[in-house]
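ok trying again, last paste got cut off:
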Amino acid sequence: MTLYDWLLFLHVLAAFAIVASVVAFTVLVVTPDAAALRLTPLARRLWDIGGGGTIFFGVWLALNRPEYGIFDGWVIAALLLWFISAGTGTRFGMAYESARQTGSPPERSLALYGVMTAAVALLLLDMIFKPWA
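nice, full thing came through this time. structure:
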């Protein structure tokens, strides 16, 4: 296996962690009881690991491949979507962490959840189809 193969594997593995985090956060939104709130630390760690891994290995991939450039349109779109999803996902996780400590679901969480989920979905579509490549 080449370095590119390893980087791509780790990048996709990190993306799976993000999707797993979104699934765990979906459980929190759909079932906001005390038992579901126990998933918050797991969802937040998956979000942190997935977010850090995708940006780190994604930039490394963009710099490592001669046919891709960091200034390609789809890479810039991915970076913007990553920053949007990272910001909203982190705030969403923090809101549910405080909710876990108080025992009541947070307010304004649906807006953060919607933006986070839409940004992750658009990011996955950008990575799969690579528009402007």
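cool. The chain has a mean pLDDT of 91. The helical segments are 3-30, 34-37, 40-64, 73-102, 109-129.
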